[in-house]
Write a structure and sequence with these properties.
This protein is of the alpha/beta class. The chain is built from nine helices and ten strands.
Length: about 300
C-alpha cells in the first residue's frame, strides 16, 4: 500500500507571513512534490476593508507560489465550505491540484492589534482577549467566535490531510515578544486546537516572526536568493513593500527575515498556567495546621 503524499498545511494571519517566515520549508516541500494547503485568516487589508489593495496582495501571493512551483498558468477560485460550516474562498492553479490557498478574510489588526476605523476596530487579538464576542469576515459577513475559529482551523487541517502544520508563534511564547499581534493570534489559535485534541501537536511547528530578525542568520546564499525571488514576485503586487528586488535585502526587517527561518516544535512551546494554578500549587506545597508532611 502506497504511503499518502506528504501535505503541509499553513495557518497564517497575512498573505506574506508564509513567505517571510516559513521559506525554505514550504518551497522545499513544493519542489519535492508534496502537497501544500495554506489558510490566511485576515484579508491583510491594512484597514482598507475589501479593496483593490486586498486583491493585489492576493494576486501577489499567487505569483509567489508560481515561482515556487515553476509555472505561471491560470488560477481558479471557488467557495469551499469546511466541515464546521464556515466558508472560505479557495484558489488553486489549474494545472497543479497539489496546491491551494484559502482566504477567510477577517479584518487585519494592524501593528497594535487595535484595528482601524474602516473595519470597526474589530480584530483577532481583541476577539482572543475577550473584548469581542465574535468577529465577522469582511467578504461574507460570517460571524466567528473563538471556538468556531478554532474548529475552522482544525477542519481545514483535517480536510487537507496535513502531515505537517506550520504557523507563527503563539503570543504567549517568550520568543513572540514584539511580534505582530495577528501573528501571535494565529499561533494561539493553532495551539488551542492542539490543546483541545483537534490537531496532533506532533505535526505542528511554529515559525518565529518579527523577533526572528535578531536570531542568527541561518540560510546560505543560494537559499536567500531563492527566497528573495519568491518574495519579490509577491512584492511586485504589494504597494507597501514593492521595490527593486535587490533592495529587499537592504530594507530593515525584510532584509533580516529573508536571511532566516526558525521553526519551533509544538512540544517545545511552554503553555501558560491556568488562572489560579500558581496559587493552587503554592497551597499544595504549604503545610497545613503548622504540621509538615510526614509528621505524626
Amino acid at each position: 500500500m502506497n504511503a499518502p503524499t506528504p501535505m503541509i498545511a499553513g495557518i497564517w494571519a497575512h498573505y506574506d507571513d508564509d513567505l517571510l517566515f516559513a521559506i525554505p520549508t514550504i518551497d522545499e516541500a513544493i519542489l519535492a512534490g508534496h502537497g501544500v494547503r495554506q489558510l490566511f485568516l485576515t484579508a491583510s487589508d491594512a484597514g482598507r476593508g475589501m479593496s483593490r489593495y486586498v486583491d493585489d496582495r492576493e494576486t501577489g501571493i499567487r505569483a509567489a507560489y508560481d515561482v515556487m512551483r515553476g509555472s505561471a498558468t491560470a488560477w481558479s477560485d471557488r467557495r469551499t465550505v469546511l466541515s464546521n460550516g464556515v466558508t472560505v474562498t479557495t484558489t488553486s492553479p489549474d494545472d497543479d491540484p497539489r496546491m491551494s490557498l484559502s482566504f477567510l478574510r477577517l479584518p487585519d489588526g494592524g501593528l497594535t492589534g487595535g484595528g482601524w476605523y474602516a473595519t470597526g476596530y474589530r480584530t483577532i487579538p481583541k476577539l482572543l482577549g475577550g473584548a469581542l464576542p465574535s468577529l465577522a469576515t469582511l467578504d461574507t459577513g460570517q460571524d466567528l467566535t473563538v471556538a468556531r475559529l478554532i474548529t475552522t482551523i482544525s477542519a481545514f487541517v483535517a480536510e487537507a490531510g496535513a502531515t505537517e502544520v506550520v504557523t507563527t508563534l503563539p503570543d504567549f511564547a517568550p520568543a513572540s515578544e514584539g511580534d505582530h499581534p495577528d501573528h501571535g493570534g494565529a499561533g494561539r489559535l493553532v495551539a488551542a486546537a492542539v490543546d483541545a485534541g483537534l490537531i496532533d501537536g506532533a505535526i505542528v511547528r511554529y515559525a518565529v516572526g518579527y523577533p526572528g530578525r535578531t536570531w542568527p542568520a541561518n540560510l546560505d546564499d543560494g537559499a536567500v536568493a531563492r527566497k528573495l525571488a519568491v518574495f519579490a514576485a509577491y512584492g511586485a503586487h504589494d504597494e507597501v513593500v514593492c521595490r527593486a528586488p535587490e533592495a529587499y535585502l537592504e530594507t530593515p526587517g525584510l532584509g533580516e527575515w529573508l536571511q532566516r527561518e526558525h521553526l519551533i516544535d509544538d512540544h517545545d512551546i511552554v503553555r501558560p498556567s491556568p488562572p489560579g494554578a500558581d496559587d493552587q500549587a503554592a497551597d499544595a506545597a504549604t503545610p497545613s495546621h503548622g504540621r509538615v508532611p510526614g509528621d505524626a
